[in-house]
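Severity: low
Component: inverse-folding endpoint
Summary: output formatting inconsistent between runs
Steps to reproduce: submit the following structure tokens with default settings.
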């Protein structure tokens, strides 16, 4: 058990929400800057997925992220790394130079001095055999403190530490049927069946334990997506009902290389994809009516203000391209 840090129904589901214009908000993307939250928030967090390409796209987006983080009035207290942290071969294991070039220098401690809570993506298993074990063990291998934080393939965070407002349940969605469909490997590049069973038992235990007012589940693969990968049938069938049963407020993921927000009829959970960290953008398929989907590199900003959980998608130019908020009772509204 990991440490405790306190097919598809796709075309049958109808999206409920409207655009901000239809709601009479008349707000343009980017009108709210990173420095102007509605009020002082006890928790500000960043999220970035599908970033570990080592190329110019990752570097450019990292610079945009650094500028946004520097401008934040309430400084961020942590960042979620949503998987596909390292594409392509990563020789050297714990001593690979990519730890410096693609992580510690790409997101420098002078600007990002906080924990970076990471989960595994399919490329973290596939592109360098055994690299998932390196990522899991990297923190312990360091003689000095590192911001890289991955205490297990699945783990819990209650934030802020004092009087938590949000419980984050970090999970591994690299299941055999999912990754085998993506990569078609003869060599396993997924969590074992025993690990998956253990994770699902652990997840149920977390849901029946005391939680903060908001609950967010964080995985790599989307449950629902209007991007090129589409819905993930296994997650729709196995994880989706659990999210609904336990009234999870938000499912946050990457995998599709874009920025999305979906609200589906009859479901309490909001589905957010933040996979624009640097990997080549995906071609989007036919979208559900009213879906908010931005085919751009970018990242996300989560914060709590006035007892609401706010999510902003920030595009490659540093502008807010979409924003919404959600209350404890699952009421939600588009802000941009």
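Observed output (run 2 of 3):
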């Amino acid at each position: 058990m990991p440490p405790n840090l306190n097919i598809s129904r796709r075309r049958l589901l109808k999206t409920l929400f409207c655009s901000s214009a239809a709601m009479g908000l008349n707000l343009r993307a980017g009108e709210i800057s990173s420095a102007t939250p509605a009020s002082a928030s006890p928790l500000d967090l960043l999220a970035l997925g599908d970033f570990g390409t080592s190329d110019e796209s990752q570097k450019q987006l990292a610079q945009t992220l650094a500028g946004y983080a520097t401008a934040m009035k309430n400084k961020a207290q942590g960042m979620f790394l949503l998987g596909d942290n390292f594409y392509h071969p990563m020789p050297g294991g714990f001593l690979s130079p990519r730890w410096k070039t693609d992580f510690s220098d790409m997101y420098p401690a002078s600007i990002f001095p906080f924990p970076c809570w990471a989960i595994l993506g399919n490329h973290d298993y596939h592109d360098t055999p055994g690299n998932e074990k390196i990522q899991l063990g990297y923190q312990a291998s360091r003689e000095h403190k590192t911001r890289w934080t991955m205490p297990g393939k699945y783990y819990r965070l209650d934030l802020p530490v004092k009087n938590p407002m949000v419980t984050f349940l970090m999970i591994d969605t690299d299941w055999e049927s999912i990754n085998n469909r993506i990569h078609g490997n003869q060599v396993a590049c997924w969590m074992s069946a025993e690990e998956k069973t253990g994770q699902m038992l652990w997840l149920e235990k977390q849901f029946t334990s005391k939680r903060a007012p908001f609950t967010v589940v964080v995985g790599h693969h989307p449950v629902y997506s209007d991007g090129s990968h589409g819905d993930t049938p296994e997650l729709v069938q196995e994880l989706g009902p659990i999210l609904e049963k336990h009234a999870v407020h938000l499912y946050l993921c990457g995998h599709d290389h874009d920025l999305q927000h979906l609200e589906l009829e009859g479901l309490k959970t909001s589905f957010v994809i933040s996979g624009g960290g640097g990997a080549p953008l995906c071609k989007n398929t036919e979208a559900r009516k009213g879906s908010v989907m931005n085919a751009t590199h970018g990242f996300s900003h989560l914060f709590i203000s006035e007892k609401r959980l706010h999510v902003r998608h920030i595009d490659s130019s540093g502008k807010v391209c979409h924003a919404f908020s959600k209350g404890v009772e699952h009421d939600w509204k588009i802000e941009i």
